[in-house]
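User: Study the fold:
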Amino acid sequence: MAPDSEDEGVIIHEYFGVDLDLVLTAVKKDLPALKQKINNIVK
C-alpha cells in the first residue's frame, strides 16, 4: 500500500531517523478525524 502523503512515507521508511515532532503533528492532525470515523462505525 502506498503512503497517503509524503510525510507518511518518511515515517514508514526511516525507522531510526523518525522525527518525533512530525509524528506528533500527524497524530494531532489525523487522530480526531479517525476517532470520529470509528465512533460512527461503532454506533
Remarks:
- DSSP finds two helices and no strands in the chain.
- The two ends are 29 Å apart (CA to CA).
